[in-house]
Amino acid sequence: MVKLKGAISGLGKMGLSHAAIVGAHPEVDIVSVCDTSTLVLDAFKRFTKVKTYTDYQKMIDNESLDFVVIATPTRIHYEMVRYALEKGIHTFCEKPFSLTIREGEDLVTLANQKKLVNQVGYHNHFIGTFRDLKRLLDTDVLGDLVHFTGEAYGPVVIKEKSGTWRSDPKEGGGCLFDYASHVINLIQEIIGRPTKANGSQLKRIYSKEVDDAVYSILTLESGLSGVLSVNWSDETYRKMSTSLTILGKKGKIICNASEMKIYLKEANSKENLGKGWTIKYITDFAIPVNFYLRGEEYSAQIANFVDCIIRKSQTEINSFKQALITDKVIELLIADSKN
Amino acid sequence: MKMDKVLFGDNQFFAVNHLSDEKSREQAIRFKDDAAIIRVLDQAREIGISTFMCTTHDRIANVCDYVRANPEKYRGFKIYPCMPYAHKYANAVTDLGIIGTIKQYIPGNIFSTFTKGGVAFIRKDFIGFMELFIDAEMKMFKGINTPVIFIQNVLVDLILGLKMFDVFKEYDSYIRKKYNAEPGYITMNLPALLDSLNSIGIENPIICSSINKIGFRMSGGINIYEKYLTEKTFRPIALQVLAAGALRPKEAIEYIGKFPKIESVLFGASSKSHIQETKELIEQYL
After folding, report:
1. Contact B16 A238 (CB under 8 A)
2. Domain A124-282+325-338 class?
């Protein structure tokens, strides 16, 4: 079989990680990379056969690519994604998707018109525990839902200093865009789509220009409400830790990337869950991958994207359309926080 | 040089728990003081474990100070450093960018020693930069016996995926030359890594990777791992043998015993009884 030709645009932490994962995929050849940092490009020149570009459009024009992975600052997602789609190139874009709803809608329309595979990097959906949580909720194990809490904490900005594009609100920086977007997306896909935000607080802790913590009460389409609590300046966490807690009339589930704790008031024989607590671990759910870097989910999402291209089908997980819903919730939160 | 069968790890000291955030917080509380780390390390030593395999976490520097200050007590004690402590850099890269991180963590090297444009220096001489980076990470172990020096899996697997295999070659020769030590590699992709190392002429390398009965974190699947463990030439260290706690110690280590090639098992535990039990099982089956 002829291998697919892929390229990476943006070689920061996520871009490099994508480059390694794409590079290790047996059905893909990574032919080129693009970044403004000549330092990183020089490393590629020195150690690999991959072509390097500082001009994204030139790369798209010169290379006959099947797909591109875009991992640049959020502000320039729009122009890059649009250019790729116009040239008929399948596109994987990092999260959050777009900074304005108009731009996001434009890209969703264009990708669908062109029938191109389009996916956004909300990788939590490729973690077995969150996936099983969705399945369990769909089978109604908790009965009528009463409340939810979506949380993420981690140690990104833990002292006062100026930083990178992530500390610039115009670039799409800040805890809301970077951290909270993951939680909002999980809530939206697993529990239900938020349509209202109340009491939203975007708090600065150490950053001068952007929020370091996000707190809000979200109401979903179903009427169910819950709490969003996210803080990237919490050094009591060694790395990003994301969790959902869902309370229903029949019990409660607390789920994160490594375990799912289920409490049921009565046993559920269909799911083989006893009365009281049942703890399930990621070892039971981990999605098998052929290459591992930082977590199965990063490889699994790229494998899904590549599979969709090969099978000429659309992804059911993390399409542009789904990512745009998250962008809309982000906008709701920003508007509410200004009230 | 043969490695000890039992290598004592440091995850438990730094709240690394692959299954439970709660356990990880308990550990962070328990090992708040360096004295608590040294106490457990000493318990392991009293049981007869003499190799400590650890990351280049800031707090390991304090442990090293203690080891140096008590040469009699730590006679024959070995440390296998694993560099870098990844989260230190990963969080910094998100916050400061790649150049910002280099500035923060290689102080007094690149940007002051080479004031005429540190970045230009790196560009001309990536390998020179790598050597400075290794030296910066190794500084805390000065004067301590470090017969094997590892690169952490996040970096090994990044280089592997990017196919920058020459970096391995340079690392390998620098560790041998400068530290008179054996280079080691931690990976979550054992078969692919061994093939790559062999392809650039690195033979019989020390590779530390997940090896467990249920195939947890064994990329490509358990079958190819078993094939490599049986047929290929390398020096395996088994890690995550308990599959993050999913397996009982006896069945877990019995499985490891099926592969005579495995030289050592790396494990961490916080209680003396657990350490003792695991050590005895390893010695029985390996």
Report:
1. yes
2. alpha beta
> What digits encode the pLDDT tens for the residues B198-226?
999 999 999 999 999 999 999 999 999 99
How high is the pLDDT of residue A232?
A: 95
Instruction: Kindly list the residues from chain B whose CB atom is less than 8 angstroms away from the CB atom of residue A39.
Output: 98-99, 119, 122-123
Q: What is the pLDDT of residue B100?
A: 73
**Whether B164 contacts chain A with CB within 8 A:** yes
CATH of domain A4-123+295-317: 3.40.50.720
| Domain-located, residue B172 | yes
Residue predicted with more confidence, A34 or B86: A34
CA A51 to the chain's CA centroid = 28
Does B95 contact A154 at a Cβ distance shorter than 8 Å? no
CB contact under 8 A, B122 and A21: no
Our count of domains for chain B comes to 1
From the CA of A237, how many Å to the nearest CA of chain B? 8
pLDDT in tens, B156-191: 999 999 999 999 999 999 999 999 999 999 999 999
Is residue B43 scored above 70 in pLDDT?
yes
Question: What is the interface pTM, i.e. ipTM, of the complex?
Answer: 0.93
| Cβ-proximal residues to A190 (8 Å cutoff; 6+ apart), any chain | A130, A133, A134, A137, A244
Strands, DSSP E only, in chain A? 4-9, 28-34, 51-53, 67-70, 90-93, 118-120, 145-153, 194-203, 213-220, 225-231, 241-248, 251-256, 259-264, 276-281
Residue range B104-130, pLDDT digits in tens: 666 554 444 444 445 556 666 888 888
Residue B281 belongs to domain spanning: 6-85+145-285
Contact across the interface for B216 and A156, Cβ inside 8 Å: no
Using a CB-CB distance cutoff of 8 angstroms, which residues of chain A are in contact with residue B90?
13, 239
* Least confident segment among A92-96, B47-51, B135-139, B160-164: B135-139
Q: Shortest CB distance from B91 goes to which of A24, A156, A284? A: A156
Find, in chain A, the residue whose alpha carbon is nearest to that of B243.
Answer: A283
Residue B95's pLDDT is what? 67
The answer to whether the Cα torsion of A107, A110, A114, A115 is positive or negative is: positive
